Amino acid sequence: MCKKILIAKKDHIEDWMILDNGSLKLLEKTIIAEQNIKIYIHSNETSKHHRPHVHASYNEREYVISIDNTIEVIEPKEDKFSRYLIKTYFRSHLQYFRKEWNSICSSYKFSINDKGEYICA
């Protein structure tokens, strides 16, 4: 007798997520992971937010922090932990975050100036 096993998958798979070879695209790329801090970017940001941003987590707190001309917490509201993340990581790694943003599917891309810096268009 054959048994049929069904697996319920919570994630919705869309066409852009599947590569030509049948495997799935990376949905999240970790940029920084140390101690209890993780800063990452999603591979598709065309519909959720309109501003360039990265996601950051510290212990059990989750943040969305902009990387355009104004570095600020988009979600949830700013607190001392988000200020710590911005002061410690965002000021010194902003160019790298912007470079990573340009590598994903998004409705906004940074321009690159003569010095090779990623700037807001």
Kindly describe this structure.
The structure is a single chain. The chain has one helix at 80-102, and strands at residues 28-34, 37-42, 44-45, 53-58, 61-66, 73-75, 105-106, 111-112, 118-119. The protein is α+β, with helices and mostly antiparallel strands. It has a 5-stranded antiparallel beta sheet. A two-stranded parallel ribbon has the order 3-7. Strands 8-9 form a two-stranded antiparallel sheet.
Task: State the main characteristics.
globular, five-stranded antiparallel β-sheet, alpha+beta, 121 residues, 30% strand
Question: Which structural class should the secondary elements be placed in?
Answer: alpha+beta
Bin the strand percentage.
25-35%
Largest β-sheet summary: 5 strands, antiparallel
Q: Rounded to an integer, what's the Rg over CA atoms?
A: 17 Å
Mean pLDDT: 84
Helical content band: 10-25%
Number of continuous helical runs: 1
Report strand order across the widest sheet: 1-2-4-5-6
* Cα end-to-end separation: 63 Å
- Shape estimate: globular
Low-confidence stretches: 4-10
Element string (H = helix, E = strand): EEEEEEHEEE
User: Care to count the β-strands?
Assistant: 9
